[in-house]
Amino acid sequence: MGEREKYEQLGIDKAIHRPCDYSTACHELSAVLRLAYSDLPKTVQSLVLQDILSAFRILPQVQTGHEKSSANLLLQSAEAVLPKQKKSLVSKEFKHSIIAYKRRSSKSIRQSVVNWQLPQDILIHILSFLDMRSLVSASSVCTSWKYAANENSLWKTQYSIFFGNCSDLSRKKYEFDWKNAFRENYYYLSYLNVGTSTNRVICMNCESTIWLSNLTSLSPHSCPKLGRKHGKRIRLVSPNKVAEFLLGESELSEFSSDSDRDSDSDEKVEIRRKFFHCIAKEGENY
Under a CB-based contact definition with an 8 Å cutoff, are residues 7 and 45 in contact? Predict the structure, then answer.
């Protein structure tokens, strides 16, 4: 498979247009610029440039809380790597977009908020269709949403989506804490060696690339080798791994020996523990 086919397979151009995946797409583009851009064919470099410009044009429409810092990181990488003419084009696009972003943010703050609440059972039903990260974000909206987003049945669904069969745990005599079980298992599936968030994962059984935003109760990953009912083995894919994949240095499903060892260094374990604890606890201190 050539570099162009690999880049198109990554689907970064589509991820940019999904608000929940925008930050991950920016981080991956930044890694591609820093680690792979100079070694890529000009046709692929052109695609990367188009996606960078698209990311900046879409910025004003994204309101997730992390989009500005992600776009700034992408700009820094572009200014450090791109030739003068392309650098000027990217910087100009970013300046226009950041002005529009600030105007949109200011307008959103001034808009009045309608004070009404849905019944908890209806709200829980609506939240059941969200992906994991959106569910965590929803818990930060207000007190009512926080209680709904922490509903045990919602996290049982998330556990089933990520880790497959949960019938053994369901037979526990006491009320099982599914959110806590999800948090602990989510930590163990991590591959990241640094505290960088990513929305891209890979099924280690069928080697399918999956976006976390696509893992919902309506569209769970059905592994061709294991199906839905058996335990899944998925791992997070770091932005640096995406760059290595483009250069042909490794496959997305390949991980360093350090990440596969049960006895990681204390420093790496502590970094991962803090990062994933932060993700799982996000919004609980509202």
Answer: no
pLDDT, one tens digit per residue, over 165-219 is 666 555 555 578 888 888 877 776 654 444 456 788 887 777 778 888 877 777 7
Task: Please give, one letter per residue, the 3-state secondary structure of the chain.
Answer: CCHHHHHHHHCHHHHCCCHHHHHHHHHHHHHHHHHCHHHCCHHHHHHHHHHHHHHHHHHHHCCCCCHHHHHHHHHHHHHHHCCHHHHHHHHHHHHHHHHHHHHHHHHHHHCCCCCCCCCHHHHHHHHCCCCHHHHHHHCCCCHHHHHHHCCHHHHHHHHHHHHCCCHHHHCCCCCCCHHHHHHHHHHHCCCCCCCCCCCEEEECCCCCEEEHHHCCCCCCCCECCCECCCCCCEEECCHHHHHHHHCCCCCCCCCCHHHHCCCCCHHHHHHHHHHHHHHHHCCCCC
- pLDDT value for 169: 59
Torsion, Cα 273 276 282 284, to 10 degrees, reads -50
Quote the CA–CA distance of 151 and 247 in Å, as a whole number: 44
Q: Which of 106, 115, 28, 105 is nearest to 74 (CA)?
A: 28
- How many Å apart are CA 253 and CA 236, to the nearest integer? 10
Nearest alpha-carbon partner for 276 in 243, 217, 236: 236
What tens digit of pLDDT does each residue of 254-275 get? 654 334 333 344 444 444 444 4
Residues of the chain with pLDDT > 90, as a percent, come to 28
Residue with tokens 């932060």: 278
Contact predicate 75/97, CB 8 Å: no
Bigger pLDDT: 134 or 277?
134
* Beta-bridge partners for 236: 201
